[in-house]
Design a protein that fits this description.
alpha/beta, Nitrilase/N-carbamoyl-D-aminoacid amidohydrolase, 9 helices, 14 strands, six-stranded mixed beta sheet, 289 residues, globular
């Protein structure tokens, strides 16, 4: 089975949900014209990233009119959206939602909130507490948001939970220059995407935004990486656009036959050793106090 996927590598108007929703609709229309089955938007692309004290003003309940409008759009094209979610108890999450056939199929709340250097997420967001795969009309998928992917355990859990496609929503800023005059943030992300795709035999869909916020630049470079680690489609750096490609479950099957690492994974050993480590850390902490 093959299906066509697209990434909306867009610029975002910080704090203006209405304008961003309008851009969403424009890209949905373009994707429909290209017979795309699944369209993925970047992290916080409905709201903007460096919102700080504006977070409550831009947050959306899962039953808000904006989400309802996008649910209607998803009746003939599946959508992955990035937004600030307001929970019933007034907590705010950096969230992504998978919409399909007019329904919210799954919501992922970012687990790892970067709060170092230029990042201040833990000051404004609550942390998610789960990583789950979910069934779509195509196959089982999982969603992670930016910093989640810099923690290998997140991808490990998603893969063991049966995901065939890993969707990564990102607002990765431009940071550092390597010897080859490439951004160090770009080099790291491209390495991670290839390694995870090949190691866990996953299709990796990396959706990164472009543009500027508060003097910070986002570099784009969205990509679709095959389970072999080969980059199938690559978006331009620093340029808005619709990146399209195909996901092949037959290719996934071939790679998992060739490299059956997931089949041979011993999750029970991982659990046992992690429990041992956690116990040791608790003992050390208690001794210090």
């Amino acid at each position: 089975m093959n299906f066509k996927i697209a990434i909306a590598q867009i610029d975002v108007v910080m704090g203006d949900v209405s304008k961003n929703l309008s851009k969403y609709r424009d890209y949905i229309k373009r994707a429909r014209g290209k017979k795309v089955s699944l369209l993925v938007f970047p992290e916080l692309s409905l709201t903007g990233y460096f919102l700080k004290d504006m977070v409550p003003n831009c947050a959306l309940r899962i039953d808000s009119p904006v989400i309802e409008a996008l649910k209607k759009e998803s009746k003939n094209i599946s959508l992955v959206i990035g937004f600030i979610e307001e929970s019933e108890d007034f907590k705010y999450y950096n969230s992504s939602a998978y919409l399909e056939d007019g329904k919210v199929i799954h919501v992922h709340r970012k687990v790892y909130l970067p709060t170092y250097g230029m990042f201040e997420e833990a000051r404004y967001f609550a942390s998610g507490d789960s990583v789950r795969s979910f069934m779509t009309r195509f196959c089982k998928m999982a969603m992670l948001i930016c910093e989640d992917v810099w923690h290998p355990s997140s991808v490990y859990i998603a893969a063991l939970d049966g995901a065939s496609v890993l969707i990564i929503l990102s607002s990765s800023p431009s940071r550092g220059i390597t010897a080859g005059k490439k951004l160090s943030s770009t080099t790291t992300w491209e390495t991670l995407n290839k390694v995870y795709a090949q190691l866990y035999t996953l299709h990796v869909i990396f959706a990164n935004r472009i543009g500027f916020e508060d003097g910070v630049n986002f570099w784009g470079g969205s990509e679709i990486v095959m389970p072999s680690g080969r980059v199938a489609v690559k978006g331009a750096y620093f340029k808005e656009g619709l990146i399209t490609g195909e996901v092949s479950l037959d290719a996934l099957k071939r790679e998992r036959i060739f490299s059956p690492l997931l089949r041979d994974e011993k999750a029970e050993v991982t659990i046992k050793e992690l429990e041992r480590i956690v116990s040791q850390l608790k003992t050390i902490k208690n001794e210090r106090t």
